[in-house]
Amino acid sequence: MSQQRSITDFFTKRRKPPTPPRAALISKTNRSPKKRDEPPTRVSASTDEASPVQTSPPPPKRARRRISETPQSDDDDDAWAPDGASPMLRRRSSHGMTTRPRNDEDDDEGLRRSSRARRRSSLLSAPTEHVKDDDLAMMCARRVKAPLKPVPYDVELIPKASRDLEGSILQRVDDRQKWAQDLPELVALCGEAAFRCQARLNEPKPATKHDPKPLMLEYLCDRLDVDDPLWGYQLRTSNEGWLQGFVTVTTFTTWAPYLRFDSHAAASGITADDVRDRAVDVDNVLGAALEAQPRRGDPDNEGVVFPTVAEISLLGGLGGGAAVLSIALDELPREYEYVVLQATEMGIPFYEALGFTRVGVVAQHATSTNCTIHAPEEGKESHASKVYRLRKNLRQLLRDLGKQDVNKVFQNAVDTSLVTDYLEIIKEPMDHSLLRTKLIAGDYNSLREFVQDHDLVWRNCTTYNPEGNPWHAAALLYRDRCARVIERWREKHPDLATFDGHSKKYTSQELADAADEDEDVMGLCVWSFPDTNVEDQYPCYLMALDLKKRRGEERKSGLRGWLERRASGASDHQEDDEDIVARRLQRSETWLPDWPRGVVPRGRGVAAKFLTGGNSCYLGYFEDKELASRAYDDAKSRYEHDIVAQAPVPSLNDAEWLNSIRQKRSKLLAAKSPPAPVERRARNLEANLASAQANDRLVAAAKHRYERTKKLYEQIVVVEDNKTPDYYFVHQYVPDCAWCRLVKLVARGTFDRGKRAGRTRWMLVPEGTQRDLDISAQRCFVVRSKMTADTDNADDEVWDVEDPRRAPMNDLFRSRR
């Protein structure tokens, strides 16, 4: 029986998982206790082999949905902040919503995960002496980083950038180290932009409250460390040098062994509500074009690269978003034909206004221990389905063969710059990386073809290295071990051992239909924490733009373009909003006829989503269509009065404005570098002087009374150089970066009984009503406190805090809890 849990608890509350004991931490992360001088190990999502990787802990989030998506903005071009979660309906039925519990079968198959390969970069690396063992046990797979420097100014002082970028300086940044140094400013800016965006969108008090979340530090670190190439722009104030916005660009890369662009695939997550209210690739024209783009690479190493597809990987800021993104699109090299990005709910209207369209994409989220597909019942498998099953099982075979290469000498190609005569002797080089690349490309249609290529691995080694050479002997040992592995594979899959995919013709659509039957093939989830089950997350909202079309429109803009269109007889008539709404509404009625409205397949179950008033509500993961459809109908009945087909977003690409930005682009990029950020705090404003002095006394008392500690998670702290004497709850803490996300505490009456009677009760402020602080741990000083009501929901916790300016009360604060 599946465990029932309310989706309201899952998303709308500030979740704060309690710190588990040491044994639980090790069990959760599948790691063994290690000495401090020994690096932790990470089990890859696509292989059983563990490799030493330095890591850092994931900061606990207010919601347990531990996934950060990419850029976010809005159609008013204000606070174009990335946010990591979709806005949720505050009231919804929990009927039928399940979070699938782990069972024995799951333990055999492992969690389906979305992983990004970690490029071995020395950037941001640091020794691990300042990170505790318990912290290492909670870390996600990335390199340990040096503590981040404090931001020298308060981000609430940053003015909004104008749409034409007047008063701002645009700087192109190609240096990865520069991005690493500015990481504290990026994190703080994302938090401030999310707060301003939330305040503006919720000012008219909509029926469904907007709840944007800022990008997490973990996600920013991952993108800045992995994206290759990495370049972009930073927008700063011309006088103070404060960061107003940023955008980063890279080449689209995936580490999924199977990925397909297909807007008609039900698993991609595009629902009828999306078709009704948003710009969607309903005819799969854009999806088919992206699927036809060349790709190359190894999903187990550097990833599968799409050389003609660019990706907007990070975007955030305060105003000026359309101008900065337009300049970045204009600066893309000509070899890029398309650009994609992962949009959050708040950013969808902004990107639609710039011409982006939702496209569907599905990918295989391989399990960590097994990706084998067994044969179905006799006579019920098509030829294309058998070809797909063969290729997927061959990928597992290649992983098993890789384990026999104990010295890891056959994993990559021979470096011919060192072995200069290798190609003179070996005419057909082969290695495991090339085998994986050919598997991804679909070059193998039988076991015989695969084994022939694989045998070249050890044959080439014995050919180049004569008998008596230790590498010759190692190759023969590898051959014998692999022969046993291949024989076991033949016994396990007897129908595939003699199968020849060339015996019958099959279409690409038949192969796609076969992939859709695979439980591991789901809507793409680009990034998640290592212990997060991808099935419990809704597919990312991928949007794309045809750069060839955009460049053509650029050439045809202005008077010359108008004359050309007039001479050719082309019409300038554009479809009005009413026609667009009617067309979308009609198409939504026939979208995915085999699936209930708002329901899509998701791994071994289904997922449901409800859309109203521009807000997307993820209803959860379900075991069958009936439960998911019932949850959708319940949500629809609650908010039926708000269900109105949304008018298309007005375009931000008007020719006059675009031409002015393009004319100004050279001047902006040629401007002098922005000054170093001016140090300034909100406490220095005249209105805050008295409260700032009170905070100085509070911090001084805390420094004098309490010993400094690095254990900050779930502690109550005071903040140095703050403008008000407030207490803060440490909601997120990343120990290697020495970075915190703080939530302000507010007094809520007094305790009415017991030994605490008459003392002040402290609770977290309601989410979105006050700024959460993203600051360096160097500014935080712990004060003694006691949690008197410990719950999973941080908003319901009650604290008793000792005022360091008064006499100590040791009888009330002997222990933290």
TrEMBL record:
InterPro entries: Acyl_CoA_acyltransferase (IPR016181), Bromodomain (IPR001487), Bromodomain-like_sf (IPR036427), Bromodomain_contain_prot (IPR051831), Bromodomain_CS (IPR018359). The keyword Disulfide bond does not apply. Keywords: Bromodomain. The keyword Ubl conjugation does not apply. SUPFAM superfamilies: Acyl-CoA N-acyltransferases (Nat), Bromodomain. Residues 43-54 have a biased composition (Polar residues). Residues 402-472 form the Bromo domain. Residues 1-130 are annotated as: Disordered. SMART domains: BROMO (SM00297). This is Bromo domain-containing protein.
